[in-house]
Write a structure and sequence with these properties.
By secondary structure, this protein is of the alpha/beta class. The protein has two domains: 111 residues, Rossmann fold (3-Layer(aba) Sandwich); 108 residues, Rossmann fold (3-Layer(aba) Sandwich). The chain is built from ten helices and seven strands. The strands form two sheets. A four-stranded parallel β-sheet has the order 5-4-6-7, with helices on both faces. A three-stranded parallel β-sheet has the order 2-1-3, with helices on both faces. The longest helix is centred in the first third of the chain and has 19 residues. The two termini are 15 Å apart.
Length: 234
């Protein structure tokens, strides 16, 4: 078999989800290639302690500069494509694209393709993502409408991500709150629920809703695995 293609992963936002990416990618490559094969991944782990205050301050330009510099370092290190293991930071994905010449495997594009079969989806994510046009604008291309929880519920969802999941904390009370939010989105017409934050799979999954649950981390890793394996995208 030809040599596997090397992926550069912009991670560390947070390291919890980066660890999940690394695990899923290695499991997928091993399952599909066999033997002693593992995923050729070069990770540039960001300091989320530098990112998070910029998010609170609304300094998206500053975050874009950090990601662009990290992406350039990955390309200089010899990766053949770059991916960003975070939904919210795709708000500044154009800064990455402007800096690199290798392909950028866009998480939001991957998810947009996955939701195209649905007329309406519910989204759980950080409040930055849920209140932006990042997903509605991209999903609209296939005619898919986005529903998000109301403001008070969005705050709870956001705080669970930043105060708990970012630190690896998984609480039954938080799972119950997420299940309730998912149920309300289904009641409002959501035909599927998108877990549009890379840590959310730690807390909820397919058994927590009455409709399909789409985990963006899982979807992204499938496409990244296809890229790594020669001929998989042919």
């Amino acid at each position: 078999m030809s040599e596997l293609h090397r992926i550069g992963l912009l991670g560390g936002a947070t390291w919890q989800s980066t660890a999940t990416y690394y695990k899923l990618l290695n499991e997928a490559v091993h399952d599909r290639v066999g033997g002693a094969s593992s995923a050729p991944v070069t990770i540039h782990s960001l300091d989320f302690g530098d990112i998070e205050p910029r998010q609170r301050a609304g300094d998206w330009a500053g975050q874009g500069r950090i990601l662009a510099k990290a992406a350039a370092a990955l390309e200089a290190g010899g990766v053949e494509a770059i991916a960003l293991g975070a939904n919210t930071l795709h708000l500044v994905a154009d800064d990455i694209r402007a800096t690199i010449s290798v392909p950028f495997i866009d998480l939001i594009d991957v998810v947009a393709e996955a939701v195209a079969e649905y007329d309406t989806v519910g989204v759980l994510a950080t409040n930055y993502t849920m209140t932006s046009d990042l997903l509605p604008k991209r999903f609209a291309a296939s005619g898919t409408t986005v529903l998000v929880p109301e403001a008070a519920e969005r705050e709870v969802i956001h705080n669970v991500i930043y105060d708990e999941l970012h630190f690896g904390l998984v609480r039954d009370e938080s799972r119950a709150a997420y299940r309730a939010a998912m149920a309300r989105l289904v009641d409002e017409g959501a035909q599927a629920i998108v877990l549009a934050c890379t840590e959310l799979g730690m807390l909820v999954g397919s058994s927590d809703a009455s409709v399909p649950v789409l985990d963006t981390t899982v979807l992204h890793c499938r496409v990244l695995t296809d890229y790594m394996i020669p001929g998989a995208l042919a």
